[in-house]
C-alpha cells in the first residue's frame, strides 16, 4: 500500500492534537452555557486550551520550515491550522463575552448554538483523524456544512425574537453581539472543513 504521509508522521499527530483541542474547547463552551456556573474558572480552562492550540500551530509552522517533504502542500497546511486557530479564538471570544457582558442566564438559542459548534468540532475531529489516508471524510465534512446551515437559520430567528420580545435595549445589544460572535464561531468551523475538502480534492 502506498502511504500518502511521509515517514515522519509528526504532522498527523499535530493535526489530531489540534482537532482534539478544538473539540475540548467547544465542549467546555457548551458546558459553560448549559451549566452556567464557575464562569471565571470555565473561561480560564477555555483560554488554556486556546493557548495550547497556539503552541500546536507554532510547532506545525516550525516543522514546515524544517521539512523537505510535507504530507501535502505547505500553503494548505498553513491554512488548515490557521482556520482551526480561528475556531479556537472565537470559542474563547464567545466565552469571555458572557463574562464581559455580565450575562445572568444564557438563552435557549445560545445553548443550541453552542451545541451546534460542539457537534461541528466532533465531526472535524473525526475528519482530521482520517487525514493521513485522505479517505472517508465526506460524511464528516457534509455534517459540518449542514450544521452551519442549521445555525444560520437559528441565528436569524434568535435575532428576530430579540426585536419582537419587548427586551430592554441594552439586552438587545448584548445578545445581538453574542449571537453574531457565536455565528462567526460556527462559520469558522465550516471554513476549516472547507480547507479539508480542498486538501482531499487536490491529493486524493
Number of domains: 1
CATH fold-level topology: Methane Monooxygenase Hydroxylase, Chain G, domain 1
The coarse silhouette is globular
Give the mean pLDDT. Answer: 93
Computed structural class = mainly alpha
How many distinct helices?
6
Beta-strand fraction estimate: under 5%
User: Which CATH class applies here?
Assistant: Mainly Alpha
CATH architectural name: Up-down Bundle
Q: Distance between termini?
A: 14 Å
Overview of the molecule:
This protein has 204 residues and is an all-alpha fold. The chain has a single domain, classed as Phosphate transport system protein phou homolog 2, domain 2 (Methane Monooxygenase Hydroxylase, Chain G, domain 1), CATH 1.20.58.220. The protein is 81% helix and 0% strand. It contains six helices and no strands. The chain has helices at residues 10-35, 39-66, 74-100, 108-129, 138-164, 169-203. Helix 1 (10-35) runs antiparallel to helix 2 (39-66). The two termini are 14 Å apart. Mean pLDDT is 93; it is low at 1-7.
Short overview:
With 204 residues, the chain is mainly α. The chain is 81% helix and 0% strand.
Structure keywords:
mainly alpha, globular, 204 residues, single chain, Methane Monooxygenase Hydroxylase, Chain G, domain 1, 0% strand, disordered N terminus
Amino acid at each position: 500500500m502506498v502511504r500518502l504521509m511521509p515517514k515522519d508522521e509528526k504532522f498527523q499527530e499535530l493535526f489530531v492534537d489540534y482537532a482534539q483541542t478544538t473539540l475540548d474547547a467547544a465542549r467546555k463552551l457548551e458546558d459553560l452555557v448549559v451549566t452556567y456556573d464557575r464562569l471565571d474558572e470555565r473561561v480560564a480552562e477555555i483560554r488554556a486550551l486556546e493557548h495550547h492550540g497556539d503552541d500546536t500551530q507554532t510547532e506545525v509552522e516550525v516543522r514546515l520550515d524544517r521539512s523537505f517533504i510535507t504530507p501535502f502542500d505547505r500553503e494548505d497546511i498553513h491554512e488548515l491550522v490557521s482556520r482551526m486557530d480561528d475556531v479556537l479564538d472565537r470559542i474563547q471570544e464567545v466565552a469571555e463575552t458572557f463574562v464581559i457582558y455580565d450575562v445572568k442566564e444564557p438563552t435557549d438559542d445560545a445553548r443550541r448554538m453552542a451545541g451546534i459548534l460542539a457537534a461541528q468540532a466532533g465531526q472535524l475531529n473525526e475528519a482530521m483523524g482520517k487525514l493521513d489516508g485522505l479517505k472517508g471524510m465526506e460524511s464528516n465534512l457534509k455534517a459540518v456544512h449542514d450544521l452551519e446551515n442549521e445555525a444560520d437559520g437559528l441565528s436569524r430567528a434568535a435575532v428576530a425574537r430579540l426585536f419582537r420580545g419587548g427586551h430592554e435595549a441594552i439586552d438587545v445589544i448584548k445578545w445581538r453581539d453574542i449571537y453574531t460572535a457565536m455565528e462567526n464561531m460556527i462559520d469558522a468551523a465550516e471554513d476549516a472543513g472547507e480547507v479539508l475538502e480542498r486538501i482531499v480534492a487536490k491529493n486524493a
